[in-house]
Specification:
The chain is α+β, with helices and mostly antiparallel strands. The chain is about 20% helix and about 45% strand. The chain binds nicotinamide-adenine-dinucleotide (NAD). Its EC number is 2.7.1.23.
């Protein structure tokens, strides 16, 4: 029997919708299982789906996600509350289709020999200094590529390329392309300091390692979660072996979502 979980943004509209979805699915004979769901229905916005992704990130091969938005159209949350009945019937009655998107693996290593920390990001990882300019070496495939000085670096997934990465002038990458993108935040470029200045798109297996040069304390954000990392030796980013799996019940092509979100229908 299929097991489901519903996660809500926590506002009244989303909570009401969450109970309706739960009631419907239980009526259809599905089992509610918060710990080991086969499908997670996220109700709220993209932030709610990011939260759900992290809650179940240790079982991405077993849990599929679907997002309902109670605010504006989301990239991950693309169902509207009016379609709930349709969605619930689809979940209950049909073996659903799965689309898989790549995610980003981030490994933070420390100087003091502390155990490394591993994260998976659905959107991106951003690296900033706690105070002043971030100064780091950027290695690609084990070779020094550049020394970066500036506000920070953003390593994003293809599905996250429409989020923070886009605001940094990064390209939008179709999620069928297994890659990560490195985008700069306000790099210092003059006759002394030089960075490439363009976003870079790295294929699978091309690992990018960020190594501190002066400061070793960093503010590292993985999606919505920002953590302070002290005594950092390196931050390694690459396409993860794991994928995120979305349950698809109707076609809603990526480029259509990009158009709906950023261009609209016009006058
Ligand atoms: P939030 O509430 O600040 O929302 C950020 C916005 O980003 C929301 O409108 C959300 O719909 C949108 N968003 C999230 N993922 C997206 C995606 N893959 N494509 C297009 N839009 C997307 O924060 P939150 O809800 O906790 O989301 C965290 C995300 O916010 C981070 O992963 C980062 O991508 C984004 N962010 C963006 C900027 C920026 O654009 N300058 C700055 C900080 C964080």
């Amino acid at each position: 029997m299929m097991k489901f979980a519903v996660s809500s943004k926590g506002n009244p509209v989303s909570d009401t919708l969450k109970s309706r979805i739960q009631t419907y699915l239980l009526d259809f004979g599905l089992e509610c299982d918060e710990e080991e769901p086969d499908i997670v229905i996220s109700v709220g916005g993209d932030g709610t789906l990011l939260y759900a992704f992290h809650k179940y990130s240790s079982r991405l091969d077993k849990t599929a996600f679907v997002g309902v938005h109670t605010g504006h159209l989301g990239f991950y949350a693309d169902w509207v509350p009016d379609e709930i009945e349709k969605l619930v019937i689809a979940i209950a009655k049909t073996p659903f289709q799965i689309v898989e998107y790549p995610v980003l693996e981030v490994i933070v290593r420390y100087n003091d020999g502390a155990k490394e920390a591993r994260y998976l990001a659905l959107n991106e990882c951003t690296i900033k200094s706690i105070e002043g300019t971030l100064v780091t070496d950027v290695e690609i495939k084990g070779e020094l590529f550049e020394t970066f000085r500036g506000d920070g670096l953003c390593l994003s997934t293809p599905s996250g390329s429409t989020a923070y990465n886009k605001a940094l002038g990064g390209a939008i990458i179709h999620p069928s392309i297994r890659a990560i993108q490195l985008a700069e935040m306000a790099s210092i470029n003059n006759r002394v300091f030089r960075t490439v200045g363009s976003p870079l798109i790295l294929p699978e297996h091309h690992t990018c390692v960020i190594k501190p040069l002066n400061d070793v304390h960093f503010q590292v954000a993985v999606d919505h979660l920002t953590l302070l990392h002290k005594d950092v030796k390196s931050i390694q980013c690459r396409v993860a072996n794991e994928n995120v799996r979305f349950a698809r019940f109707r076609p809603f092509p990526f480029w259509k979502r990009v158009q709906d979100s950023f261009i609209g229908k016009g006058e």
